[in-house]
Amino acid sequence: MNRIACAVSFALSRSQLIAPGILAFLLGELAWTQRSWAEAEGFSYKNDFYNHAQDGHVYLTSFLFSLVELVVLCLRAVYLAFLFTPCIAMAPFADSFGLEFRKTWLQCVHCTLEKAGPAFIKWGQWAASRPDLFPKDLCAVLAELQTKAPAHSYAYTKKTIEKAFCRRLTEIFENFEEEPVASGSIAQVHRATLKFRHPGQRIKPILVAVKVRHPGVSEAIRRDFVLLNLIAKVSSYIPTLRWLRLDESIQQFAVFMMSQVDLAREAAHLSRFIYNFRRWKDVSFPRPLYPLVHPAVLVETFEHGENILHYVDDLEGHVGIKSGLAHIGTHALLKMLLVDNFIHADMHPGNILVRMTQGTAADTVLFKSKPHVVFLDVGMTAELGKKDRVNLIEFFKAVALQDGRAAAENTLKFSKHQSCPNPSAFVKDVEKSFISWSSVEGDSMSPAECMQQLLEQVRRHKVNVDGNVCTVIVTTLVLESWQRKLDPEYDVMHTLQNLLFKNDLVEDLVYTIEGVMAP
Fold first, then answer.
1. For a disulfide at 379, which of 92, 177, 224, 260, Cβ 3.0-4.6 Å?
2. Cβ(182)–Cβ(150) below 8 Å
3. What residues form the membrane-spanning segments (predicted)?
4. Segments in 262-403 forming alpha helices (H)
5. What's the N-to-C CA distance of the chain in angstroms?
């Protein structure tokens, strides 16, 4: 094979045909300049051309593989171009042809992203948390994107698990349900009974959830990111799109996506949350069962519970339970934000379960029970730098005090590369919004609605906001919205105000939170 590769390489270099000449040139480049590729694959680098030619088949295979990848990428780009053409063509007229036309366009965007694949579905869900970049109605439509996907075969699930843990399925699980409980765009979940965590060491059977990544997801997302990066780089040369800083947004989104695709990273997030909430009796997370953790497979405890929407929308009465849920949610979020600096950034109702602890009296168990909250799907998290964290706390202080100028000035500090064309006009408009909020007419307006208006001003004035900061703000708004439904009398911002002004030093907030709000 080595001699054939050498002969082909020299024969092509002497050919008078254009295409073989180009191929020979590329092979020569691979042989002489791609030292890092060989080292990455574990090959030693040699200065002798003949020794390079000995590995010619490796370079040839790598080149052919890259050529195939390029063809697949081009075909994917053509498909996406056709798919997104209707949305792009309708976009300039979305605000001009009336409300019905805009609704049609929004529905078109929704359907297009669902058909485009997991990377674009996740991008839509991520974009829904960026009202500083996109209109409110578009964010609402993107938030409804469904991550349901066709389930892959049980044979693939079995093969993936056995390959990940180098053990047969029956050597790990006592029972394994072939039909998945749920299937998302990244992975699907099976219910099983675990009997062996370590080879040959039988344990008491545990009901577990086994999350298995879909085949080809990583490759599909990687290709889509190549295209998204290309679009972001092109947008930096378009003056009207430059302020969006799509390249930075794509990088932030890439980190989020890697957390979703790499199930081992999600297990690490779970372990960190479990440690942070180790003293809390009414908040918990699924527990990853090491060593059964792999980038493509995650085994964790199966958590029972009712979706929190049951208590928000369906359950009538039971004011005590609803009020307790509102308090638990607020306390948990503020602990993540102010104490741990590690925030669950995907805290929508679908990722929150509620179960009731048993009461003493069997006939009044619902009233004697205490709610327990379980947070799921912690792939998407946010951490803030020290400066951003201080700015965010000052921002919340300003909102609590209804100080529009301070809120606007802190918002302008939420990006290292602020490119707002007219900061003074932004400050004035935010001040006007806060003045109307503090007036008699604005008494019925909630703090969340006021912050939504502020984010609308951010978008209108093209103010740059760091993605993690915006994610934290939007998570607070999402939590505040369903907590207001649970307990209309409970004021999240008032609780935040009491906390922030109880002790003005950020360093002492650990003591404040643990002392005032720990269960």
1. 260
2. no
3. none
4. 263-276, 309, 319-334, 365-368, 386-400
5. 70
Per-residue model confidence as pLDDT tens digits over 77-116: 888 889 888 888 888 888 888 888 888 988 998 888 888 8
pTM assigned to the model: 0.73
- Give the orientation angle of helix 263-276 with respect to helix 246-261, to 10 degrees: 90
Helices 56-90 and 2-14 pack at an angle, to 10 degrees, of: 60
- Of 177, 259, 170, the closest CA to residue 468 belongs to 259
For residues 185 and 122, is the Cβ–Cβ distance under 8 A? yes
Count CB neighbours of 235 within 10 A: 17
Distance CA 282, CA 289 (A): 21
**Which residues are CB-contacts of 64 (< 8 A; sequence separation ≥ 6)?**
none
Query: Helix H segments across 166-296?
Result: 217-235, 239-242, 246-261, 263-276
pLDDT digit string, tens, across residues 12-44: 445 455 445 555 544 554 444 444 433 433 444
261: nearest Cα among 298, 209, 296, 299: 296
Structure-block tokens of residue 23: 């191929």
